[in-house]
Amino acid sequence: MNPQKHILLVDDDEDFLTATKLVLEKSGYAVETCMSAKECIAKLKISKPDLIILDVMMESDHSGFDLCRELKRDLGTKEVPILMLTAIDQKYPMNFGSAAGDEEWLPVEGYVEKPVEANVLVERIKKLLRD
Amino acid sequence: MTTEIRKPFRKHARIVIMDNDEKTLKQLIKSLSKEGYKTETLAQTSKVFEKIKNEQIDILILAVDAWGTKGYELIPMIKKMNRFLPIIATSADDSIEMATRVREEGVFFYALKPLDMKEIKLALKNAFKKSITRYYEPVTIQKKKVVHKDFEDEILDLNEASKILDVGKQTLRKLAKKGELPATRIGQKWYFIRNQLLEWLRVTAAGNQKNYGTLILETMDEGVAVVDKRLKIISCNSAYLQALDVPRDKIIGEYCYRVSHRSMVPCDESTCPVRQAFKTRRPVKFMHVNYDSDGREHYCDVIALPIKDKQGNVFQVLEVIRDSTEIYNLNEHLNWITSFFVHESRKTLGPIMMNISALVDSKLSETISVGKRNEMLLSSLCSLKLLYDMIRNYIISYKGENRTIQCLKKRLDIKNAVLLPVLEEVKPLFYKKNMDVETRISGDNVIYCDCDLMKIAFSNILNNASKYGTEGTTIQCVLTVSDKECELSILNEGIGVPRNKLDDIFDRFARFDKLEISGTGLGLHVVKMIAEMHNGIIRAESGFLIQNQPVTYNEFDSNEDLYTMKEENLKKFARFILTIPSGERGQNKGGVI
Questions:
Q1: pLDDT of B424 higher than 90
Q2: Apex CA A86: angle with CA A57 and CA A14, to 5°?
């Protein structure tokens, strides 16, 4: 059996964190959670997960974007795949363009739109981790 | 409507008094006559309209509670007939409702009976000054940079009249002196009324094609310019000048792109409606961003209509600018609101979908214990309540802004009809956070209020306490009812309200940046709205819990004994206090806002 994979779940919605953590743990993953970009960076300094699940809009509209870019610039975390969670509707983009800035589209490995069903999220994770 | 320009004198000032209270009438007539005012009384409401329509009145003193009618309802109608007429409203009804209603209608002064004549004389003096200002400074009053405006009674000086008619100032002055043109002379200056001027032009210039063309351009509300093949403006109307905020002499003969886009080069043919109209010989419509002289953006529909000669060749283009900035901004705002709600709804649905889908997935749910399952269901229920509140608050807020909510006040037991059901409703939220509610109720609990609205207000305050309160703490809920007022105070230990946010927290969509909690920021705004509908208030207090006693920021800052305490080590509290009048006992007071 493969060794247990580690996932870092970053979201500012405590209810979502609790629900998702339980689902992922029951699906066989080791899950750590944090609610802010600052906390996330602090945790990454201690250990490197196999996957980061990151919400686009946390404390401010852009913090998910900023954190994502920072992680992909950092040599230590560059290789960790990121699954971006978003409650932003493409039809009503809420300054999506300005948040993404002039740079190319965010260098993440995948997107999942909220709300997402448990099995759909688990399937996406399995694909990304090649389980 | 016609507005006569005349030089008023105090002794000629006509004051019309509408009242059926003989004592007040006598008092007013006697006192004002002594001051040199010419007074006149009116005994029927219907007569006032005739009077305003046919005669020149300087000030109207209106008893808004006379004849048992809602006198304030006359005010908007009077204003429609003469929006400059200063109205002094009087009433024996000293209720806040009446005062608010009358002031909302925009009266010059509101006086309570018995009248204080000193106060009335001062108000008259000021109202009279206002009339004089209007007569002597007509152009200042009309200096509005609004394009789509009712110009009917705009007062113009010689310069402006000359520009509108496209007739020289000398000629205009001659015509005015001869009395061939409707004009009024004040001192050395001539003044004209726009609609009279245009009417004169219409009648006298029907045979003159050039002037008739000017008349048509001027009659249009939208900015219109005629552009030739070189893209130079050869003529335009006043609305065009107002839309672009530039004087006429800087426009005529100038390239259209320099005027409207402040650009030194012509626009690309594919994006220029004027060039397109020349090319295609068809009307073309584009949305353009124009800039006024202050650099502000104007979103304009630019319509280019080709003017053709007998051979069908386009020799000029009529460029019509329709300023749609307001509609554009409104659309932007609606888009923002929609995005906001889509985002908040999806975010709130996140944990519900995750929990429920896990519970119905047979493989996953097998591994989840009964206790955990209940927690997941409770969490989902709480999120659903959050979503429901969000929708409810949005609807109330929207209806409140549009003034379409009915506030039906009834006599009721605030404890049993409002507080206890609401506490039951919010129970899951407290249960989820392991919070207790300590309730203290005093008084006989009977007040006048709208039951449904008050439930929403109470529920929002309690929801707020559960959201921002610390897990495992106790919320203090105190309801005090006296003959005069009913007060609900909800105190929770938690993150508190920052010092600089205590006043803003009731604003629409107010929400702090780093609360890590979802929500629309509408809940407290709705509470404020409901409090105001009941002539009540809501206020917020916050500070520190010292030995379990709440100490507000102000108390903390001014208490020398507490100087040594470090703020970051102290627990914080937030308290919301809703106070509404208990209402007159024994009388069912209904009202509509």
A1: yes
A2: 65
Please state, in angstroms and rounded to a whole number, the distance separating the CA atoms of residues B396 and B99: 25
The predicted structure's pLDDT at residue B260: 78
Helix (H, G, I), strand (E, B) or coil at B552: strand
Nearest-angstrom CA–CA distance, B139 and B163: 15
The answer to the question of residue B247 being in a domain is yes
By residue count, chain A amounts to 131
Cβ separation of A87 and B346 shorter than 8 Å? Answer: yes
Asked if B358 and A35 come within 8 Å (Cβ–Cβ), the reply is no
In the prediction, which pLDDT does B434 show? Answer: 94
Q: Which of A57, A92, A118 sits opposite B354 (nearest CB)?
A: A118
pTM of the model: 0.58
Contacts of B152 (CB under 8 A, 6+ apart): B1, B194, B195
Structural domain of residue B332, as residue ranges?
A: 328-398
Asked if residue B172 belongs to a domain, the reply is: yes
Query: Is B86 in contact with B130 (CB distance < 8 Å)?
Result: yes
User: With an 8 Å Cβ cutoff, are B358 and A16 in contact?
Assistant: no
Q: Which of B336, B346, B367 is nearest residue A114 as measured by Cβ atoms? A: B346
In Å, how far is B300's CA from the nearest CA of chain A? 23
A102 inside 8 A of chain B by CB:
no
The most confident of the ranges B105-114, B327-336, B444-453, B576-585 is: B444-453
Domain boundary among B279, B302, B324: B324
Q: Count of domains in chain B?
A: 4
Return the CATH architecture of domain A6-118. Answer: 3-Layer(aba) Sandwich (3.40)
ipTM here: 0.86
| Token code pair at residue B507 | 């604003």
B590: which DSSP letter?
Answer: -
Q: For chain A, what are the domain ranges?
A: 6-118
In terms of domains, do B200 and B284 share one? Answer: yes
Q: Chain A, 9-38: which have a CB under 8 Å from a chain B CB?
A: 12-16, 18-20, 22-23, 26-27, 35-36
φ, ψ dihedrals at B507, nearest 5°: -70, 155
Q: Is B560 found in the same domain as B418?
A: yes
pLDDT for the residue A73 = 85
- How many residues are present in chain B? 593
Do B334 and B320 belong to one domain?
no
Q: Kindly state whether residue B170 falls inside one of the protein's structural domains.
A: yes
| Distance between B372 CA and the closest CA of chain A, angstroms | 9
